Amino acid sequence: MFEFKLVPAPAIGAAASGPLPSRWRRRRPEEDDPLTLLTTTINLCAAAGWDYAGSEIVPVTRRRFLRAPVVEHRTYLVFRRPLEPRRSAAAAHEAAVAAAAAERAAADDAERRAAREELVARVRAGARRIVVVPPGPLMLAPPPAEAIAAE
Predict the structure, then answer these.
(1) Which sequence spans correspond to the domains of the chain?
(2) What angle is formed at CA 107 by the lines to CA 103 and CA 109, rounded to 5 degrees?
């Protein structure tokens, strides 16, 4: 799959417009050359990762003052690029989320092992009654006072 982008083709006669006749104007070959304008546009898009796919002539309807609509034909350059960079970014994000979840699970396992070892040590020390409160986000109240006093 590809992502497409339309860029207006550079105007060929843009450098020759103005109130002065063209024979009085100082000419700059790099501005008047249509191939230079086209090459510059294609190179700028290629530097951004877009591949040139061709050109399209699109009819555009415009109104000129109070007159009837006028149909103009405009030329657009078509560029495309594959959608895989976005997918790889999404895959990298999913991998980071999975790694964070695995790290969190390992931390929870280590926490459970430490709590178990602590309970085993209390039982071996002769504790009569041990209240086990599961850790969780909804633990709002501390354990009962008689459970603490029994230790």
Answers:
(1) 2-82, 86-150
(2) 115
